């Protein structure tokens, strides 16, 4: 039973790391890239147009909403799939904690 618990824990950690990497890649590669406007230390982003995400520390729900509907000067990213929106939202939340 202990071996199963350890195996599941390792699998969950690997899955979370893969999701973080997907979110990080999307942050720097979507068009226009989030990194062009936003500062996010974890992604090496130093954008100065939008708010610093390191300071704002948005939760995943706030990122999801901004991506889906836009906010202020930020356009909606309607070209992203639901999975991509989720990966970005979780990544930004995790990277700013």
Give descriptors for this structure.
97 residues, mainly alpha, two-stranded antiparallel ribbon, 5 helices
Task: Describe how the helices and strands are arranged.
Blueprint lengths: L1 H28 L4 H4 L1 E2 L4 E2 L6 H4 L3 H10 L12 H14 L2
Antiparallel strand pairs: 1-2
Helix pairs in contact: 1-5, 4-5
Beta-strand segment tally: 2
Number of domains: 1
The shape, in one word, is: globular
Q: Identify the strand order in the major beta sheet.
A: 1-2
For this structure, the quaternary state is single chain
**Which H/E pattern describes the elements?**
HHEEHHH
Radius of gyration: 15 Å
CATH architecture: Orthogonal Bundle
CATH H-level superfamily title: Cytochrome c-like domain
Major β-sheet annotation: 2 strands, antiparallel
Distance between the termini: 33 Å
Summing up helix and strand content along with how strands pair, one would put the structural category as mainly alpha
Describe the structure.
With 97 residues, this protein is mainly α. It has a single domain, classed as Cytochrome c-like domain (Cytochrome Bc1 Complex, Chain D, domain 2, Orthogonal Bundle), CATH 1.10.760. 62% of the residues lie in helices and 4% in strands. The chain has five helices and two strands; from the N terminus they run ααββααα. The chain has helices at residues 2-29, 34-37, 53-56, 60-69, 82-95, and strands at residues 39-40, 45-46. Strands 1-2 form a two-stranded antiparallel ribbon. A hairpin with a 4-residue loop joins strand 1 and strand 2. Helix 1 packs across helix 5 (82-95). The longest helix has 28 residues, at 2-29. The protein is globular.
């Amino acid at each position: 039973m202990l071996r199963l618990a350890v195996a599941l824990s390792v699998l969950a950690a690997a899955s979370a790391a893969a999701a973080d990497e997907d979110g990080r890649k999307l942050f720097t590669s979507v068009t226009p890239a989030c990194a062009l406007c936003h500062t996010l230390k974890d992604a090496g982003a130093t954008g100065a147009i939008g708010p610093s995400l390191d300071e704002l520390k948005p939760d995943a729900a706030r990122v999801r909403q901004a991506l889906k509907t836009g906010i202020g000067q930020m356009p909606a990213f309607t070209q992203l799939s639901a999975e991509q929106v989720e990966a970005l939202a979780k990544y930004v939340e995790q990277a700013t904690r």
